[in-house]
Structure formats: structure tokens, C-alpha cells
Amino acid sequence: MHISIPPTRIRLLTLGVVAVLLAGCSTFSKDGGLDAVSAMTNARTGQSVQFSRPGAETATVDGKVAQLLGKPLTADTAVQVALLNNKGLQASLAQLGIAEADLVQAGWMSNPSFSFGRMSGGHEVEIERAIMFDIVGLLTIPVRSKIEGRRFELAKLQAASDAVRHAAETRKAYFNAVAAQQTALYSDQVRASAEASAELAKRMAQAGNFSKLAQAREQAFYADATAQLARSRHNATVAREQLVRLMGLWGDNAALTLPDRLPDLPAAPGIGSNSEAQAMEQRLDIQLAKREAAMTASALGLSKATRFINVLHAGYTNSSTTDAPREDGYEIELELPLFDWGGSRVAKAEAIYMQSVHRTANAAIRARSEVREAYSAYRTSYDLARHYRDEVVPLRKKISDEMLLRYNGMLIGVFELLADARAQINSVNTSIEAQRDYWIAETDLQAAINGTGGAAMQMRAEASGDAPQAH
Q: Which of 39, 70, 88, 378 lies at a CB distance of 3.0 to 4.6 Å from 445, suitable for a disulfide?
């Protein structure tokens, strides 16, 4: 038996086959882009990221976190836990799945529309059936897929930038927490010494060997030391809780065991002669700005291509009437550019593209300035911390030793010895602060080179909704 197929149906069948072939090229990746994000993060922080899904993966992450917290907490360990366990960062990584879903969706043709109509009058019934395909959507699949592919790459860069920034914030919080705890421990020692001095002054005053003025001074110092201890303990709690939040801990895991003192200073500071060049190569916000400019340029080309023919649908239709043969044909639906000629869309796309170009240039200028500023802070904090370590603290210790010799030789009394110990309090606290400032400045310098400074945060706030949409 020979079956005749109308040419219109043949063309529509061919069109459908092409659509299916094009759609088949878009599939989800195995890793969802996480491997690239983890590689970029590891290259800049030494740690990898992992997306935790409900179920077995969550249990695996919880086991890793418990294992890491079972060891003495270091800055690197804190960062590793934060990258695995912080829920805010996990929410940022989930954006990868959204971007990849958009990419896959862009590779599929829009679903066809089907219409059915029935009209009756007298003894006649007329039935119309039609199926419509979005021709423009089919023809622009390669361009739209390319645009969404760039957006997916953009999402990877943004996720890596969020991870690197979170790692830097965690490192800074770690050093703040350790320094605050070290200061609180020292304040406790000062308070204990002041309490002993006040008690001794009280007994000597009762025996008539100490004036009321001298006793009041000792009591006032003890009161001040008690107040300072309360403030330092609160500051230590605040710093610890900030670290706990960044690490995403709660319950028993929040009971962190921090070291008693900050890490020692390195033997020599780093050399910053090529910091700007490294920043231009490694800063994620620079790469992010470049990708945004390329994406908007591609979207601008699509806007120009669809300026006049913005909606074009074609499809197969047939009509049947009672006591009459069925009629076959085709239908084309075209939006006529009578009022909107697409000029506003093209102008908007061009303006957004120029906006992206200037943002890229601005990001590069800010990056260079941030690196220079961060290196100045790094070098200054290192020099100050070393100055206190090698000059101020040893001099204070030498003075204390000399005062102790004079006390043992009965040349001075116990209160003169205690007064000298009080003079060391400010030097010790300032030394702790200088050492903390060095480690924070070192973290800020690495953040400036890797692109997690203020410019990157501004880029993130401005990135939403800036790319022109294809219509």
C-alpha cells in the first residue's frame, strides 16, 4: 500500500527531527561544575569545597567535620571545616545547579503549542486542529546555549570567589579568636596579681604600715583589672562565636579548643614586587568582570539578530467539516514591528555592554590599588610585630629582671616591684595585638591577590540582572 505524505508534513517532520537532535546535545554534567570551583578554590586557599546533599553525603561531611575538630584547631583546619560545613556557602554552591539547569534548558526547543476548535451550526460541524513550533527559538538555540554556557562559567567563578572570600574571613576570625583568648588569659593573670597586691595593701594599712592613699591606689587598680578581665572575656566570646558561625558549627561542635597563643612570626616577610602582576592573573573578580563583558557582548549580538523578527511561529493545521473532506495546511504567526522596532532593546543591550566594559576597567584599577594597600599593611604590621617581639618586650623583661634583683637585695619594696609589673601590661597587650594584626594583614594580602576584596563584593551585588536577555 502506498501512503502519500503531504510536503508540509514532511517539512514539519524534518523540523521536529532537527529539534530533537539539537535538544539531545544538552545534558547535565556529572559534577555540576563543582570540580572547577573546587580546583580554583584549592589553588588559592589550599583547601577544596564540597557540595553537601541531604542523605549519605551529609553524613560523610559530618564525619569529616568531627574528625577535623578532634585535632588541635589551626587556621587551615578552621578553613577546611568552614568550606565543608558552612550552610551559607553551600547555598552559594547550589547556584551552580541553577545555572546548569538554565544551560540545559537553553539547548532544548520550546514546547510546541496545540490548538483545537469546534464550531457547529445547523447540521454542520467544523473542527480545526493546529500544532505550532517556535521557529525563532529553534534557530537561536546555538546562540542561546552559548550565552547560557558563559553564564554557567560565570556562576563557577562567582562560587569560587564566594568560597575564597569565606576562607579568608574564616582565617581572620580564627586569628581574632586566638588573640582575644590570649588577651583574656593574660588579663586573668593581671587581675590575680592586682588582687594579691590589694590584699597586701589592705593588711599593711590595718597594721599601720601603709597610707590610705596608697591603699586606695592599689584597690583602684584591682577594680580596673577586674573590669578589664570582664571585657576581655566578652571579647573572646564574641570572637569565638564569629569563628563558630563561619565554620557552621552548633551543639557540641561549637565548643572549640583554641591554642593558647598566636603562631610565631615568620623569619622574614614576603616580597611583594610582583603582587600586582599576580593579582591581574589570579583575581577572580577580574576574571568575573571579563566574562560578564563577553557574555553581554554575545547577548548584544542576539538582540540585534532578533530585532525585527522577535516572534515567529509556524505549524501544521487541518480543518474538517461535516460531509466534506479534511483540509490540510500550515499556519505562520509573526509579530509585526509596527510600534516596537526593537531599537530600545538594542540600545539597552549596548548600554549594558559598555557598563560591563567600564566595570572591568574599574575592577582592574581597584585591584592594583588594593594590592598595594594590602602589601603596605602587611609589611608595616610585620615590622611592628617584630619590633615588639625583638625590642619592646625584651627591654621590658630586662627591666623586670633588674627590678627583681633590687627587690631581692632589699633595695626596693614589693609595691615598687608590682608597679613595674603593671607598666608591662600595655606592652604585652600591644604585642599580642601587633602579632594578630600581622596574621590578619597577611590574610588580607592573599585575599587582595586572589580577588576577594571590596571590588569582588561590589561585583557580586551588581551582577544580578545586568546581562541583556534574548527576546
A: 378
3-state secondary structure of 51: coil
Tell me the angle at which helices 34-45 and 87-106 cross, rounded to the nearest 10 degrees. 140
CA 217 to chain centre: 51
Strands (E) located in 235-295: none
Q: Cell numbers of 99, please?
A: 545555572
Are 349 and 358 in contact by the 8 Å Cβ rule? The answer is no
Which among 372, 364, 348, 369 is positioned nearest to 459, based on CA atoms? 364
* Nearest C-alpha neighbor of 156 from the set 335, 31, 27: 31
Rounded CA separation 58/68 (Å): 15
Contacts of 214 (CB under 8 A, 6+ apart): 201, 205, 415
Judged by DSSP in three states, 75 sits in helix
Contact yes or no for 81/65 (Cβ under 8 A): yes
- Whole-angstrom CA distances from 377 to 352, 372, 381, 437, 448 are 36, 9, 6, 9, 12
Residue indicated by cell numbers 480543518 = 319
**Amino acid in the structure at residue 366:** R
Query: How many other CB atoms are there within 10 angstroms of residue 381's CB atom?
Result: 24
Query: Residue 245 and residue 266: Cα distance in Å, rounded?
Result: 29
User: In this structure, what C-alpha cell is assigned to residue 362?
Assistant: 574599574
Separation between Cα atoms, residue 27 and residue 147, nearest integer Å: 16
| Predicted confidence (pLDDT) per residue in 359-408, tens digit | 888 888 888 888 889 999 999 999 999 998 898 888 877 877 776 777 66
305-342 b/e with 16+ CB inside 10 Å = b? ebbeebebbbbbbbbeeeeeeeeeebeeeeeeeeeeeb
Q: How far is CA 355 from CA 261, 292, 351, 361, in A?
A: 48, 10, 6, 10
CA of residue 42 relative to chain centroid, distance = 14
Q: Kindly report the pTM of this predicted structure.
A: 0.75
Task: Express each pLDDT in 438-451 by its tens digit.
Answer: 999 999 998 888 86
Rounded CA-CA distance 373/441 in Å is 10
